[in-house]
Amino acid sequence: MTTIRPLYMVTVTDAICKGDLAEMKKLRAECEKHIADHGDIASLLSTLQVEIAKAEHGAKRK
Amino acid sequence: MTASLADHTIHRPVRYTDVSDYERMVPVHVVWEITLACNLKCLHCGSRAGGPRADELTTTEALDLVDRLAGLGTREISLIGGEAYLRKDWVEIIRRCRSRGMRTAIQTGARNLTEAKIAAAVEAGLQGIGVSIDGLAALHDRVRGVPGSFDQAFAVLAAAKAHGLAVSVNTQIGPETLSQLEPLMDRIIAAGATHWQIQLTVAMGNAVDNDQLLLQPYQLLDLMPLLARLYEDGRERGLLMVVGNNIGYFGPYEHLWRGFGDESEHWSGCAAGQTGIGIEADGTIKGCPSLATSLYAAGNVRTATIEDIWRHSEAMRFGRLRDVDELWGYCRTCYYADVCRAGCTWTSESLLGKRGNNPYCHHRVRDLAAHGRRERIVKVKEAPADSFAIGEFALIEEAMPGCDLRPMPARDPNAVHVRTVVRAADGGLAPATLDLCRDCERYVWPHETTCPHCGGDLATTAARHAADVARRQALIARARAVLARLGSEGARHEA
Question: Are B188 and B139 in contact (CB under 8 A)?
Answer without folding.
Answer: no
